[in-house]
Amino acid sequence: MAYYLVRAKPRRERMSDLQRRLAAGEFLPMRPFGKALSIALEGARLDPVTGEAVWEEEDYCTPPLAMEREAVLDQYFLDLRVQPVRRGEGWAQVAHLPSLWGAPPLAPRLNGKARD
Q1: Which pTM was predicted?
Q2: Of all residues in the chain, what percent carry a pLDDT higher than 90?
Q3: Which of 57, 68, 82, 101 yields a CA-CA distance of 20 to 30 A from 2?
Q4: Strands 77-85 vs 45-47: parallel, antiparallel or unpaired
């Protein structure tokens, strides 16, 4: 399993739709990545310097996040980039940033149960 620090430009006009879909659990049934994607996006942060959304995500694909991009991410984000990290390292790097969702950050669920 690989982990990545993900950076992407949010499509601002679509963020409320993404937040609604996350809250409704719409991505959870998507196999094999729905649960991990949902957890990652719930914990996403906003880098106020670059305006980018940042989060850590686990993935099995080559290239990284290929299925997630096709099914969800490319609808909501532009210029998506990934950097390999150790599990939890990406979250540690962005923990000081505000939540992407404008409320207190949701604690990412890093208990090993994010996998589908």
Answers
A1: 0.85
A2: 84
A3: 101
A4: unpaired
Q: How far apart are CA 72 and CA 53, in angstroms?
A: 15
pLDDT one-digit tens code per residue, 56-73: 999 988 899 999 999 999
For domain 2-94, the question of CATH label 3.10.50 is answered with: no
> Rounded CA gap, 38 and 60, in Å?
15
Domains of the chain, by residue range, sit at 2-94
What's the start-to-end Cα distance of the chain, in Å?
12
Q: How many CB atoms lie within 10 A of CB 48?
A: 9
Please write down the HEC assignment for all residues of the chain: CEEEEEEEEECHHHHHHHHHHHHCCCCCCCCCCHHHHHHHHHCCEEECCCCEEEEEEEECCCCCCHHHHHHHHHHHEEEEEEEEECCCHHHHHHCCCCECCCCCCCCCCCCCCCCC
CB–CB of 97/90 below 8 Å? Answer: no
